[in-house]
Amino acid sequence: MGKHYFVTGIGTGIGKTLISAILTEKLKADYWKPVQSGELDNSDTLKVKALVSNPVTVFHAEAYGLTQPFSPHKSAKLDGVHIDPSVFIVPQTDNTLIIEGAGGLMVPLNDQYLIIDLIKQLDAEVILVSQNYLGSINHTLLSVQVLKQFEIPVAGIIFNGDEDVSSQEYILQYTQIKALGRIPQLNELTPTVITEAGKYVGL
After folding, report:
1. How many CA atoms, within 13 angstroms, populate the side-chain half-sphere of residue 29?
2. Residue closest to 58 by CA, chosen among 23, 96, 19, 101
3. Phi and psi of 85, rounded to 5°?
4. pTM of the predicted model as reported, rounded to 2 decimal places
5. Looking at the domain 4-200, which fold is it?
6. Which member of 33, 74, 77, 148 is catalytic?
7. Which of 10, 32, 44, 109 has the fewest CB atoms within 10 Å around its CB?
8. What is the crossing angle of helices 44-51 and 16-27, to 10°?
């Protein structure tokens, strides 16, 4: 059985889907998004599928596809759905599996169950996506702290976007977590660009 990597971020909109596409292509891994909240006609699974060009990757169906673009717990209530943790079963595959989360670690899936609970349940190793902006050191250190509290293994941090050497060095020194690379700002997203971007990631 291949390794299971859960791609999560220090917040929303910092590039989890982009990083998931790059990792899926680089590792020729399978891809799974357990919960899609909103944009069902342009889901993250469809976005990654459009960017991955290898013939090996299998895209596994979401456990929940919610129609509204909110936190999953709110979207589920609006859809009249209860998100049941027992539904989340890792897809059968011998391949490496990239699992993409929704938002950050403390995003609720129901009244009691968070994304970080899902990661723990799936027994996956985390790849944490960070981005350099004012406040990102705080958000990254908080994310790492809660991962440690839950005793979830972290494969490393990937920085996405513009470089800030001071911030990156502080984060890595304080957390003692490995940097897996930094993806520069990609102005155009095509399968070729995604394949080339794999060279920036050491995994």
Report:
1. 26
2. 96
3. -55, -30
4. 0.96
5. Rossmann fold (3.40.50)
6. 33
7. 44
8. 40
What would the pLDDT profile of 166-183 be if each residue is shown by its tens digit? 999 999 999 999 999 999
Question: Which three-class secondary structure state does DSSP give residue 97?
Answer: strand
User: Is residue 60 exposed (0-12), middle (13-18) or buried (19+ Cβ within 10 Å)?
Assistant: middle
User: Cα–Cα distance between 28 and 15 in angstroms, integer?
Assistant: 19
Q: Is 26 known to be catalytic?
A: no
Angle, helices 136-149 vs 165-175, to 10°: value is 20
The β-bridge partners of 129 are: 9, 158
Instruction: Break the chain into its structural domains and give their ranges.
Output: 4-200
Beta strands, E only, the chain? 4-9, 30-32, 35-37, 59-60, 64-66, 97-104, 125-130, 154-160, 179-183
- The C-alpha atoms of residue 25 and residue 146 are separated, in whole angstroms, by 29
